[in-house]
Amino acid sequence: MAIQYQENGRIFTLHTDHSTYQMKADSYGNLLHLYYGDRTEGSMEYLLTFGDRGFSPNPYEAGDDRTYSLDALPQEYPYQGSGDFRSPALAVEQADKSYGLNLRYGGYEISKGKYSLPGLPSMYGEGLEDAESLKIHLTDQVSGLAVTLLYGVFPGYDIITRAVCVKNEGNGPAALKRVYSACLDFLHGEYDLIQFYGRHAMERNFQRTALCHGAQVIGSRRGTSSHQYNPFLILAGRETTENHGPCYSMSFVYSGAFKAEAETDQYGQTRMSMGLQDEMFSYELKPGEIFFGPEVIMGYSGHGLGTLSRSIHKAMRHSLCRGKYKTIPRPVLINNWEATYFDFTGEKILDIARQAKELGVEMMVLDDGWFGKRDSDCSGLGDWQVNVKKLGGSLGSLVSRINGLGMKFGIWMEPE
């Protein structure tokens, strides 16, 4: 089984073909992260480090044990108000305007197949016999807030997905102020952060920087994920290359505003997290209501960035993308944009198609300028009425003539 539960120690182990992810519900009911890395067997609980840390508070139930502090222990889903002063994954304003939370372990469910997220895109497990799901329930007895952590395991892809469900089981409204979907705590190690920044016409630029103490943050406040900062991070060992070394990735399956962080604390521990953008975010959750945080796809490779990249591509292509073209070759196409910009007619498009057909091109794509009064990028965007005068006839007529050449026809539009 990809997901295993050990009652003695309350340890959860998630196996892919080449990786292991492990966590534990401890004696206080706190869910601690134990391990994520190369596949291994047995408990990794020995990695937990306890020490008397100055200025790191201790929970009441720990009594005189000053070595137990959530400010230093690796957590699976850290929340605001626990005594952990690192960046939290969840922050909630309660009905009485307090921000305290006290989430404790409340049970689990293991099932075959992949969980789904109502109304949200996510990876799916149809046709994958080895895909499994885990739900871990956390509850706050005072406020009635219930949090379910969702894990999907795809062994053959070496991929684990994460999402979160928050339900208000209390008597009053609560306001969600931050909802991250995934968090990874690392007890030790020196890492580089890899991210992809960009701008219009220059997207997806590779940037690799050494993590230092403090937080490095990327995100989007635009309402879209944007090409300024792609919702994707890699945490790589300092010596990791394409073919050697450990690396961890997070990819947000969401097209809206997002935030991702990598934070190294005073003890040299690193926290990587990703979720919804929390600036100007306040989602009222009335009693009985449920909120789902979007999915994060996590990957790990102990053999360099190339292996990680191929695992992610395979998983997304086969179990995230949909439609008939996801696994078959796309048609070779020509687009008229650089040839004509806005200055074209139907005959000019047809002439381009004829020449392209002779070269073996299979599809003609008509770009910007076919609608409204759209002769420059200063007007007409969003006016989807066909410019019959420019095309010299209907769009259907042009499509028929290009199809008559034995070519497919595609069209450009920009929905926003």
Care to describe what's here?
The chain is mainly beta. The protein is built from five helices and 22 strands. It has a nine-stranded antiparallel β-sheet. Strands 5, 10, 13, 16, 17 and 18 form a six-stranded antiparallel β-sheet that branches. Strands 1-2-3-4 form a four-stranded antiparallel β-sheet, with no helix packed on it. The radius of gyration is 25 Å and the shape is elongated.
Decide which structural class fits the backbone: mainly beta
N- to C-terminal distance: 45 Å
Query: What is the radius of gyration computed over CA atoms, rounded to a whole number of angstroms?
Result: 25 Å
Q: Average pLDDT, to the nearest integer?
A: 96
Number of strands: 22
Order of helices and strands: EEEEEEEEEEEEEEEEEEEHEHHEHHE
**Strand content of the residues, in percent?**
35-45%
Largest sheet: 9 strands, antiparallel
Main sheet: strand order: 6-7-8-9-19-15-14-11-12
Share of helical residues: 10-25%
Topology summary:
Layout: E1 3-6, E2 11-15, E3 19-25, E4 31-38, E5 90-93, E6 104-112, E7 132-139, E8 145-154, E9 159-168, E10 174-186, E11 191-199, E12 202-210, E13 214-219, E14 232-237, E15 247-253, E16 258-264, E17 270-276, E18 283-285, E19 290-301, H1 305-319, E20 333-335, H2 337-340, H3 346-358, E21 363-366, H4 388-391, H5 395-403, E22 408-411
Parallel strand pairs: 20-21, 21-22
Antiparallel strand pairs: 1-2, 2-3, 3-4, 5-10, 6-7, 7-8, 8-9, 9-19, 10-17, 10-18, 11-12, 11-14, 13-16, 14-15, 15-19, 16-17
